[in-house]
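Entry, Tuesday afternoon. Goal for today is a structural model of the target with calcium ion bound, before we commit to ordering more compound. Inputs were pasted exactly as handed over by J.K., no edits. I checked the ligand SMILES twice against the vendor sheet because last time a stereocentre got dropped in transcription.
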Amino acid sequence: MPELNLDTNSWAALSFEKSAQISNGFEDNSSSSFSRASSSSALSNQPVNRNQVSSQSLFNANPNPNPYITSAAIVPDFNGDGRTDKIWVDAQTGETQIWLMDGTTVISKGNFPADPNNPPGSIDYKIGDFNGDNKTDFLLRNKVTGANTLVLMDGTNFTNLISLDPLDGNWSPFIGDFDGDRKTDILWRNNATGENAIWLVDGSNSSQPIKSGIRLEGLDATWTPTMVDFDGNGVTDIFWRSTTGENSAWFFDGTQVNKNSLQSQDASWTFSLGDFNGDFRSDILWRNTTTGENKVWLTNSLIPNNIFFTEGSLTTLDANWKSSIADFNGDGKTDIFWRNQTTGENTTWLMDGGSIVTETFLAPSSTTAQATFGDFNNDGRTDIYWRDYATGADEIWITNADGTTVTRTPIADTERLSPIQVGEDGNPVLGPDGTPLRKWVTF
Ligand SMILES: [Ca+2]
Ligand SMILES: [Ca+2]
Ligand SMILES: [Ca+2]
Ligand SMILES: [Ca+2]
């Protein structure tokens, strides 16, 4: 393990000595331990442990019952106070900022200078909770050098920087908890070879942060993985979708994989995830980008490692509308935010399973503004952060009690971050399409 200087509290501290050898870091002998879903033994696996999931909310400060909304492994909360925090990256310099939020107020800022070894655009930022302290951490993946670093956070401070084995640039990380120990693990997918592998991570053990590296079956490049929890047991499952329209689900319990093939949906259907009936099982919102049709698949599970879906049709909305997932009334059932990218109109659907309970029309917002979501005041209801990429005049919309109205508050002028890149000549830096490039970007 390289020696780290934690005192500098700087991203530049990440530029420690890296192993010259790019190794794959995986054990080669473990694939034989996986069995197929078709074998009877796969069905006699451990029962769904609902307590494991509900206990997550006991550790979280936020009153929303749904870990999908409150988990610091999913939504940035660096100080674990149940209030979503903001991450900013300067696309021009690579500088990073973290804002700890209390409602519409920035209560603390961490400012991390650019690291010369990580030039702008080289880093893939993933968030997780790698040591299980209910405070958000980072996996910093340098896509160019292949370096991987866990940055364990407490508020705006680093508590540890852990260098993991490098992996060449063909490997992409995906974040989940594949053994249900509430410490975030990493699925690695090789975009060139189709190889897949899991690192089970324990960030609290800096001398052996990777508990085990496990090779999974390969899948060709038409397949894309998405991390879900279809059976609601607090252990991440993988939803695979192919450009051919095929879908499948893999359940992984730390020792074996069970595979289900799911009904196909042709390639004009895109999807996002939610939990529309609040049973902690990931549901799928399908949207047909050609026809504008929308529908949900509510996930049911009668036996562990196996699922079926109930389909519900929703209102059709034309292709200008883009959906996001939130929980505006804080009942643990995720709702849908619709944004018309042409007109700036905003609509919310409060959901109960496959039904729209309430449709609300919020005020329109500038078409140069982009929404990100979180609960900034810890009342269990999702709020909206609007970043205006033309003016830098940002707003937070705090959601009121029944989830159908918002209170709009501008972010203080003193916190304003430049929205566009300016060159040394004082003029905006233009992208290939002739529009100014974004500078401070939030996600
Ligand atoms: Ca927070
Ligand atoms: Ca884990
Ligand atoms: Ca809701
Ligand atoms: Ca809120």
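The longest strand covers residues 105-112.
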